[in-house]
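Record type: monomer structure entry
Structure origin: computed from sequence
Chain ID: A
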Amino acid sequence: LSEGKRIAALCDSFNLPIAPHVGGGGILAVAASIHYSAAIPNFQILEHSHKAHANKARVTSQFPEPVDGAFPLDDQPGLGVTIDEEAVARYAVADFTP
């Protein structure tokens, strides 16, 4: 997020907007992008596929949901996502080597 804020500051100095894109990222990447977008002065739009994260309810009980086209944020610390680590463990792949 720090590097993204530096990029946003550079773009802002040239009066350029930022439109973050969450490609194949998971729910934590989306949550981080939401917070990044809220923290920069030249945010334009956040590109992501809301339907691509339809299974998020399987591993989290709390996730930011858009309301009227925008993600509301609270003043709590963190990304606003509560991960159920036991649920995540059920999807773990044994002996995975990237």
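Annotation 1: The chain has one domain: 2-90.
Annotation 2: Strands lie at 60-62, 82-83.
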